[in-house]
Task: structure prediction
Amino acid sequence: MATTRIDLRDSDPVPFRGSRPSTRVEPAPIRWLRRWGFRWLHLVDAVFLYTAMVGITLARFGTDWPTYPRNYYFVGFAIATGIHLIVLYFGGAYDRELRLGLRPWLPRIAKLTFLAVLLDAAAALLTERYLMPRGNLVILLVVATLGLTANRWVSRRMRSRRYGPARALLVGTPDDLGLARAHLAEADQSAIVVGERPNAHDLAAAVDATDASDVLLLGHRMVDDIYPEPLGMLEERTIGVLQRVGPQEALLGLQAVRQIGGVPFVPLRTHALPPSRTRFKRACELVILILTAPIWIPLLALTALYVRIAAGKGIFFRQARVGQGGVPFQMTKFRTMHHPEAGEQIDGELAGTQHPRIIPSCRWLRTTRLDELPQLWHVVRGTMSLVGPRPEVPDLTAQFEQLVPGYGRRHEIPPGITGLAQVQGRYHTDPSYKLGHDIQYLVNWSPVLDLEILGLTAWVILTRRV
Result:
């Protein structure tokens, strides 16, 4: 099939060189930093923020700074810069952008900067150490919002000049292709159409043949043809894949809709949580563990002592479960059942509250979920989360992946001690319904949602609703 190429700009396009994997070898420290989400924009923002704080103080007070010596304020400016960078990082300000359907940065940066300024003020009140003169905070809110937004505008312009316009591969019926081509030619001057296909089969080969930077799925029911592959491979290569939003999808109340040439699209990705939010979730859970350590550490020790007295030697029970990315791990609980007889097979066994091997004096540990306490160590190590999809045994996971399309998506994050499916469903809720709860949790994750689920978990335990 010949490649259709329609130039939507008045000038000749600059060849795009970013769709194929880069062969440039970066130094090991830079590669390590990039794995943790580092971008040069971090450094640019840090220099700008620190310089802005110094400049605002000089503009207000000249060289005669009030109350404290300059070194005091220099340290305060560094702390405030760190606070702003952390808020920007966890707020997604450094996540990699798609080439098409770019959203305006100003509203997002304004919200994040406002939050960072509030944290600056809170840090000053809690530590009684003012990071900067108080009046500077109001000025910083305006200056930082405009400056950080400008940094991102410049970053976009530099990427556009380096790689040229976005190169779109259209996928759909002839009618859909014609309509989308007309809209793009009329409304979008920053992209070129490099190919058209009637369906999503052999999509990866088509992307290679056209050197496309973005794929626009114009028809319906194409997601099944590309998920999980080649969508995962295209995502690793930073190639955007977007699905056109029709009347049926609009009924779902989608919130991540982008406008491309006046046509609504929603970006598709294999991971419901972007890296910044995954790391933020991890940070929130570590904070919760630290704050509640005076409660759960003694409770863990007392429960361990009780199990040792009631159940004898071997207080822990370990069982293979499926963790993040589908990788098995050994999940630990307090042992509440008699040791199996010689030759008795227990791999893959999921016991309810009435199993004959349950030790009577330990039954209450299961109903109160205290037998799950050792999993807090998994959370500390990062193998599990406080809240997330519950881990299943490998055999059941393999069955569910065959029966329930998309079941593997629940393995995007570390499994949880509790989850939305556990507080909304029941023990015997069908796996496909539990998957719906798990995906809903991933898409709508927030620290508030985690706290809500933890509270509901306590209620479920108290009411014995399992």
